[in-house]
Amino acid sequence: MSHLASEQAKAERAAALGLYVHVPFCASTCDFCAFYQTKPTAQAVKSFVEGVARELGLVTWSRPVNTVFWGGGTPGLLAARDLRRLGLLVRERCGGTPVEWSVEMAPGSVTVERLAALREVGVTRISMGVQSFQPALLDALGRQHSREQIYRAYDRVRAAGFASVNIDMMFALPGQTEAEWQNDLRAALALEPDHISTYCLTFEEDTALWVKLSQGRVKLDLEHEARLYESTWAQLAAAGFAQYEVSNFARPGHACLHNLNTWRMQEWAGVGPSAASQQDGWRGANIADLTRWRENVDQSLRVTEDRTALTPASLAEDALIFGLRMNEGVNLEVWRTRSPDAPWNVVMALVDRLVADGLAQCEGPQLRLTNRGRLLADAVGADVMEAFSAEPAHA
């Protein structure tokens, strides 16, 4: 890439702006899920769509929205007419169709009518929450779909002609053997998706799985998890999927731009109950309650929870935490320039230690984790947080 092209790419990246819409409806609660959700009654859906219309009118931005992401919950539970209305509201507010528009769907909610509505408004990417192809494991997670529904839903998504199709999978499930995970991964690859996300099961507080863990009904096995990580990376690489983040793999041209922009500490506006935003020097979230969120937006209030002023140091800290989860790593020189008052003496001492321990490597200013380091990405992130909490050295 020429210097001019490189500078242009940097400028485009710096101007990235995303829109996240949290659709809070779920037919049932999966045992592992800690996201805000509620039942999709007719009145609740009506209030939600009207509230999104209201909140979109409160959002301000001075440049085009590049990417849109609808998460949940289960956005696909909305009826086709509601998906169409929501999509038209978003497209109108964005001033056109964004470069990338992703929507999460559960296999049981995929219908020809819903897919047609999403294609009509300009959605480019469907991310389907498969998790597993094995009935016993799906049942253990509290998932409501069957293996047959997965195949039927995938065929419908492909037939609808979306530019990118992602499959979400989970491993280190209670009772799951390494052979069972390999079978699940082979089944996912056989569908020939454009992108695969593989998430290690985590135990979030206030979930059914957390209760089971605290009661000793399920157990953690970190060595087993590490073996599953490594075998996953090897199998996906052999199948032509490039890892670009600890849990995300894509064929060329199919990486999720919305997530990349988020991990690179760009700006995004979040609408809907519990949706987070990072924009105009602030970070915060909407209240995680449909009724109270609607009351707030009706009073022209948004991003009222955990509202924090962003500083160069806090952005640099998060850029390292999330940047080191990506295979591209993070450019230390860029962030040292943007945040000269951060405790870089402590941070660079940590960098030297990571390199010496074989967890990271530096190529000029670019710091990346090694495969071994990526296995310990959460622990590295905690070390980064600790380093940034130190007092900066003054000359």
UniProtKB/TrEMBL annotation:
Keywords: 4Fe-4S, Chaperone, Cytoplasm, Heme, Iron, Iron-sulfur, Metal-binding, Oxidoreductase, S-adenosyl-L-methionine. SUPFAM superfamilies: Radical SAM enzymes (SSF102114). One of its GO terms (biological process) is porphyrin-containing compound biosynthetic process. GO terms for molecular function: 4 iron, 4 sulfur cluster binding; coproporphyrinogen oxidase activity; metal ion binding. Residues 11-242 form the Radical SAM core domain. InterPro entries: Aldolase_TIM, Coproporphyrinogen-III_oxidase, Elp3/MiaA/NifB-like_rSAM, HemN_C, HemW-like, rSAM, rSAM_sf. One of its GO terms (cellular component) is cytoplasm. It comes from the Bacteria. Belongs to the anaerobic coproporphyrinogen-III oxidase family. HemW subfamily. Probably acts as a heme chaperone, transferring heme to an unknown acceptor. Binds one molecule of heme per monomer, possibly covalently. Binds 1 [4Fe-4S] cluster. The cluster is coordinated with 3 cysteines and an exchangeable S-adenosyl-L-methionine. This is Heme chaperone HemW.
